[in-house]
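Why Carrier domain-containing protein? Reviewers of the renewal asked for a concrete example.
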Amino acid sequence: MEFNAITKSIFEIIDMEPIPVNKTTSLKEELDVDSLQMVNLMTRLAETFDVPFARFIEHADLIDTMGGIYQIITGEVKS
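Here is what the prediction returned.
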């Protein structure tokens, strides 16, 4: 799974025009994603990429950055 494919999905889900991002981009600080949007985002990403939602919960410390979400989706973290 490519980083760009995941970021494209994120922008579609949060209904925002894509902007240049990297793995350190913060969803909360730089993209203004609030807590309700974050829950919706994680739910939709779990469905889209067939990732157990529990993995997002287990690694909640990573979901604030694009790189953290990438790690969760690609399985670079232990479940």
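The mean pLDDT is 95. This is the kind of structural detail the renewal will allow us to pursue systematically.
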